[in-house]
Amino acid sequence: MGNRLSFKLMGYLTLIIVIIMAVSFSWDVREQNKQIREELLEKAQLITSQFLSMRHFIAENQNRINYDTDGHFEFKHLNPAAVGGGVAEIFNEKSSYKIKQTRIDFRDVKNAPDEFEKEVLNKFATEKDLTEYWQETTLNGQRVFRYLYPLEIKTECIDCHGEPKGKIDISGYQKEGYKLGDFGGAISVVLPMNRFLANLQNNIYRDLGFMLLLIGLTLGAIYFIMARMVTNPLTQLRDQTKRFGQGNLEVNTEQINAQGEIKDLTKEFQNMAGQLNELYKNLEQRVAMRTKELAAANKQLEDHHDRLELINAELERSNKMKSQFLATMTHELRTPLTAILAFAEITIVNENLPQQARNNLKDILEQGSGLLRLINNLLDMAKLEAGHEQLRLIMVDMLDVFSTIEATCAPLAERKGIKVIWNIDKDIPMITGDEEKLQRTFLNLVGNAIKFTPEGGEVKVTVENYHNKEVVVKVKDSGIGMGSEQQERIFEMFYQVESSDARRFKGTGLGLALAKEWIDLHGGSITVDSEPGKGSLFTVILPLRSKGEGD
Ligand code: ADP
User: Fold this and answer.
1) How far is CA 526 from its chain centroid?
2) Is-above-0.85 flag for pTM?
3) Among 374, 448, 460, residue to substitute to test ligand 1 (most atoms within 8 Å of Cβ)
4) Domain 394-543 classified CATH 3.40.50.720?
């Protein structure tokens, strides 16, 4: 982390320093270039001015040169142009600078203008305001600074260069016919730039070297200071934090050599680590405690579970035993009971039987039949529980079923003064079902309706054909009814509503349980709708063809 941070910082700093240095460097180079040009111009002007002064002096002293003390004239060929040319020759030999007098229509071939000079001379001739001209250019493969100064025709020039044009002057040349103030030619100076440019290059290299050294030193210093004051302490702090993160909660930031904000940071870290350590210790204790408690609770739960499994197994065993016992017992009970009933029936028809004996036999027959019904119910229940029950399917005529039920229930209803209304559709189709079980189901429903309806009440039985798909049987009474809680339970085995009203009636609580099982087996449904004191309505829906019966 330390290195990454310092490298980043160094990177940015380098960038900033380099940008600043580059700007200052290019500014410096520009300034130096400008200075060189100024210096060159000044030199050219100085040389020209000296040269012109010299020419001026010669012009002024023509008489002294050409007349001897006796007033005798002799042209000495030392006019300004001739002296200028001679001096220039010497000067050009002695220095690296070059000076020259030049003109378009030159007299001496030495003064012939080169291409550049020709151009400038033309410029001077046309632009009267132009008082000097300079330009940087290349001459014979060298960078040079060229300077030209225009010459004006003055009084002293007129003798040799004035009018009339073409007349031979004192030096033997034809006059040019110039007038006073005309443009007459120029002084041309050439200054080689090599030395100046080499100097400039040296300066650039020196500045560059200095700049690089400065950058290196600055960065080195910054890196050193950063490492000492920031990265080293931060790296140490990072290591401590890492160890802390790995679970070593004993932290010691004393030996970290930090200052200022980083010192504060290490202190804060030390504090935080201390507090966390405390917290952790507490937490560990609590976790240990909780784990212990949890283990104990788990053990208890496991014990409960084991016990429950045992109880379950026990329950299953006793349930099986119960079913087996019921099956055996009912079978063992039914055989002798049927025999008793048969004997009683045979005996009762004997006309010589005293009245008392006949009454006893009647009782035996009545109670015995009740007992047989109970036993039959129990046997059926046992069969159902064992999963052995199967329907004996035949085509059943519901009209037959209900006429038998009507005949069976009539005496009972009559005895209680209950009006039974039979509302049976004549077009009830034949259905596939177990006739005996359907009969017992509906007998139980109608029987219950009569049983749980007080004297003088009313029972209504409706049998309807529903779209030739189902038969709907409704048994409605105006009896004691029952609450919604009981309605949910009456189809359970041995369930009988616990109320003072209901307890008055005898029963076993098996009838509805069997009815439901059987209707289910037929693929139908049985439901109850009732309210205490307002009567009950049982609805059975039977499909025309039983479930499981192939088409
Ligand atoms: P049982 O009639 O032999 O007791 P059931 O299974 O036929 O057994 O009926 C279970 C219980 O449902 C009855 O004991 C009675 O409390 C209640 N019950 C059944 N039919 C009616 C009815 N029509 N009106 C009121 N209660 C009824």
Assistant:
1) 57
2) no
3) 448
4) no
